[in-house]
Amino acid sequence: MPEDRRRTPLSSETAQRVVDLIAPTISHNINVMDEHGTIIACLDPARVGTLHHGAQRVIAERRAVLVTEPGPGTSDRPGANEPLLIDGELRGVVGVTGEPRQVEDLARVVALTVQLLITQEHEQDAVSRRHTEARDLIAALGAGTTRPGDARDRLAAAGLRPPWSLALWTAQAPRPGGSASPPPAAESAAARVNGDGGRRAAVLHGALWLLGSGRVPGTDALGLPAGCRHTSTPGTEDVETLMAHAEESRALCRYPGLLPGPGHPGPWSREVAVAVAHLPRRTLDRMAARTAPLSTAQRRTVTAMASSGSMREAADTVFVHRNTLLQRVDRIRAVTGLDIRRPDHLTTVHMCLYAEAALGVSHISPG
Hints:
The protein is of the alpha+beta class. It has 3 domains: 2-128, CATH 3.30.450.40; 144-258, no CATH class; 270-359, PucR C-terminal helix-turn-helix domain (Arc Repressor Mutant, subunit A). Helices cover 47% and strands 14% of the residues. The strands form 2 sheets. A 5-stranded antiparallel sheet has the order 2-1-5-4-3, with helices on both faces. Strands 7-8-6-9 form a 4-stranded antiparallel sheet, with helices on both faces. The longest helix has 44 residues, at 100-143. The radius of gyration is 31 Å and the shape is rod-shaped. Residues 305-354 form the PucR C-terminal helix-turn-helix domain.
């Protein structure tokens, strides 16, 4: 931040806002001069842009200067002029018009006040700028149109080094239309993250996105409520993999019900969720209707079969005898026309359960 201030000249707009804020509290005119001694803010618009010779002396001698008798042909007025220091660097001059000895102490106080207000505004501008840059970077990664070389350059410019990971949080309940809704306190969480050089965050597509390297902070650490839906990707040093993760996350924001919620009971497949998120809405409706008649026990059977290596393992997962599991499998075939002992049929039924989750009609979380 100090480097930004050294590169950027003192803003006349910022200085004028500060003058307009302070001036009503005192009975004297206030001038703010830039590092060359030119008046950039004043209650008298006619003096803006003119050279202040007293300010030039302050800059040359790096000390306070009292102007008792202005020289002929100048716009100077009697008063006290103080150096304006920001981060220890002389950035300009603050002058208070009046009998010099009477306003000398006041000028010191005013200069300190101007310094504080300008510093605060710079910090607010810097936070706003980082927030905008983070949003633009994350949006570019997920757009699907950014070239890998450009993405790598933008990551480097943001100070983000590999391995990169991407995390996503949404509110537990989607918006009325079914799209993602950012969790409460998402904006404040993003602002805090963007104040640290190691990560970037933005609220985008109805979710809080977090981009960075290293371990992903927990929901509590970000100040988010415990009921958020959340997913994160493993770290990668390949920028195209990161871009793929970003595009996938953007698709998942269309159907936040696909994201695992708090206390998710079983395995969750990002690949299945992403595949379902890309399907047309009518296809989701058709798929969800196919498994709608299934009971909770039958749905859990599908989940167990999809995440197990054998019928015995699946039976143990749902705590039933193998024969009971086979009875459920037969009942699922009678209801859906699909025999989940066949890998292709199991994949279809499993995706149908994810389709239900996407539409918000699932009785259990997809697994």
